[in-house]
Task: inverse folding
């Protein structure tokens, strides 16, 4: 038996994880025990500035007190009703999302991948019932380098061999085109195309920002050919890029918006699909569901998470701090850096291949008190919580500079 009251070292926790867990991750060896705002503390009491934000799930900062209070308060009332009954929280959550985003309807789920699956089902349904595509023939166009989750369908159209290897057979009905190429989208459309699924900035691919005007062209092509534009803003949405949605940078309104991650400020898995009545209005009782989707605890947490994001002006802070951070990173004159890019506080530093991979830089940063993660081998992603201050960015830069200048 493992005695949980015994004080352990980081190494002991690492050994427990490695001994008893599946090895489907390669984490940096830092064992976090507590967190507050942009800071996390490990079991030995060392403090680190979090520059990953749990892949942008803690945009509001770790353990935000208002979201925590909402979680605690709701946990004393009711946590789960299932959708067999109603709760006093769900409608209020829907209304708040509607008021914030303008979308007419909301379909709540839990993980991001589930929300993507839901959006794909909605798009197919729309294709058959509204556009008139023959049943079973719907095609959905997706982009190379995409990341939409780890379910069997979402990996079916991944271009990353490691995500797919030995997980087939795969879901048919998807066409891959290059990211950032609007002409490729137009060329790939057939009479059976029902939707185009796209990330406005590709996070997992290494913070890939498409050329200016791309999203606007995509919007236009989708409208002209009568296909739905589905935006996966699970990582880029809710303030990360300095606007509510990354699509807002080009004043583009997708037909279907997919959100997750920061929708709960990191307290709880909450995701949602948003659209107008023409798409989500097609669902009928029994078509789709989830036991935990839209539960009162999730709804209460998400309501607080959205309120905090807006009322504490985190989106404007992300815009200002993102610009500052990115400018300062771009000024580092390191022979290892190929490119610094990003939007708002979603920043990628791409290293030259001769630098030997981003992992060793992430490890060196950890040793100096900064947590970030390599993405796709050669990119360091900097995506701190949106509450970060200029002083904290300066503190980080003092440590990032020497690491990027090391041999
Ligand atoms: C994280 C992410 C997902 C998957 O979300 P999960 O909650 O891990 O299932 C999907 N799309 C994008 C763009 C993401 O960043």
Result:
């Amino acid at each position: 038996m493992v005695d949980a009251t015994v004080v352990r070292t980081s190494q002991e926790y690492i050994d427990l994880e490695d001994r008893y867990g599946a090895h489907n991750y390669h984490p940096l060896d830092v064992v976090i025990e507590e967190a507050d705002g942009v800071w996390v503390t490990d079991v030995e009491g060392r403090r680190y500035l979090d520059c990953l934000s749990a892949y942008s799930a803690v945009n509001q900062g770790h353990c935000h007190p208002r979201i925590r209070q909402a979680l605690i308060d709701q946990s004393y009332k009711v946590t789960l009703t299932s959708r067999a009954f109603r709760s006093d929280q769900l409608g209020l959550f829907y209304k708040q999302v509607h008021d914030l985003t303008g979308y007419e309807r909301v379909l709540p789920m839990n993980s991001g991948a589930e929300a993507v699956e839901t959006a794909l089902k909605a798009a197919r349904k729309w294709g058959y019932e509204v556009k008139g595509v023959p049943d079973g023939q719907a095609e959905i166009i997706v982009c190379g380098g995409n990341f939409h989750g780890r379910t069997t369908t979402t990996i079916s159209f991944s271009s990353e061999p490691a995500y797919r290897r030995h997980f087939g057979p795969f879901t048919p009905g998807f066409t891959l085109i290059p990211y950032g190429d609007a002409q490729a989208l137009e060329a790939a459309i057939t009479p059976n195309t029902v939707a185009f699924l796209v990330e406005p900035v590709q996070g997992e691919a290494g913070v890939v920002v498409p050329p200016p005007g791309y999203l606007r062209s995509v919007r236009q092509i989708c409208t002209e050919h009568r296909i739905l534009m589905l935006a996966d803003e699970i990582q880029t949405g809710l303030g990360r890029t300095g606007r509510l949605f990354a699509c807002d940078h080009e004043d583009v309104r997708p037909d279907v918006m997919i959100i997750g991650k920061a929708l709960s400020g990191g307290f709880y898995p909450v995701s949602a699909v948003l659209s107008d009545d023409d798409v989500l209005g097609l669902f009928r009782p029994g078509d789709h569901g989830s036991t935990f989707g839209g539960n009162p605890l999730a709804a209460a947490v998400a309501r607080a998470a959205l309120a905090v994001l807006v009322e504490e002006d985190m989106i404007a802070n992300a815009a200002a701090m993102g610009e500052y951070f990115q400018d300062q990173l771009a000024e580092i004159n390191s022979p290892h850096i190929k490119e610094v890019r990003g939007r708002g506080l979603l920043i990628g530093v791409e290293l030259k291949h001769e630098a030997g991979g981003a992992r060793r830089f992430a490890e060196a940063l950890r040793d100096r008190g900064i947590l970030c993660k390599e993405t796709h081998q050669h990119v360091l992603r900097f995506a701190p919580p949106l509450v970060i201050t200029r002083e904290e960015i300066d503190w980080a830069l003092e440590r990032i500079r020497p690491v990027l200048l090391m041999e």
About this structure: Residues 55, 111-113, 116, 147-149, 199, 203-204, 232, 234-235, 260-261 surround pyridoxal-5'-phosphate (CB under 6 Å). The radius of gyration is 21 Å. The first strand starts at residue 32 and ends at 36. The chain has 14 helices and 15 strands.
